[in-house]
Amino acid sequence: MMKAEDIMTKDVVTIRGSATVAEAVGLMKEKRLRALVVDRRYDDDAYGIVTETDIVYKVIAYGKDPKQIRVYEIMSKPCIVVNPELGVEYVARLFAKLGIHRAPVIQGKLLGIISITDILTKSNFVETPKALFLEARIQKAIEEARAICTEHGAYSKACATAWDEVEELQAEAAHQKAESMVSAKISFEEYCKDNPDAPECRNYHP
């Protein structure tokens, strides 16, 4: 599975919290960015993030002067951060749950930034969806378990451990399938609430 570090943007543009919003806008235009990571003031301080949405919703929408408003007044801090080892699927799930579009990738220090654009354009979700990836891992784990049991004996600790791994992978695959079915059911229920006279919904009773 691809990880956050595999698709993140490493060239991160940062800005000071004391900078004006006008300076942030200028930097965004110059670098063609939709967000800037806000620098820490000291080593143990948290990183922040300021996005185009923050500027539009919190400054422009209220007619405030961007030259008088400071970044720290509208930024999100501490912001949601991503571990570089986190799988891309879980990054996507985190973004969906929290309704965010990007997050700094941090492990002790700032390593990069990952966005929904990175997930869409750089990951291999089209070529290798997780369901197929899991199935391949399960088959490989089964083959390895059989080989280990043949070598060490069916009642050996190594054999039991190998089959435990197979069971864990199978449980993960079953969980993913169950989540997908629940999501589809909820989507269909919402569709029928909005379209109760649709032919496919007439015999549906939630």
Topology (elements, then pairings):
Layout: H1 4-7, E1 14-15, H2 21-31, E2 35-38, E3 48-51, H3 52-58, H4 88-98, E4 102-107, E5 109-115, H5 116-122, H6 130-152, H7 157-194
Parallel strand pairs: 1-2
Antiparallel strand pairs: 2-3, 4-5
Helix pairs in contact: 6-7
Number of helices: 7
Order of helices and strands: HEHEEHHEEHHH
Tell me the strand order in the biggest sheet: 1-2-3
User: Quick check: average pLDDT?
Assistant: 84
Broad shape: elongated
Regarding quaternary structure, what we see is: single chain
Give the N-to-C terminal Cα separation.
37 Å
Structural class: mainly alpha
Strand content: 5-15%
Which tags fit this structure?
206 residues; mainly alpha; 3-stranded mixed beta sheet; 5 strands
Describe the structure in your own words.
49% of the residues lie in helices and 11% in strands. The chain is mainly α. Helix 6 runs antiparallel to helix 7 (157-194). The two termini are 37 Å apart. 17% of the residues are buried. The model has no long low-confidence stretch (mean pLDDT 84).
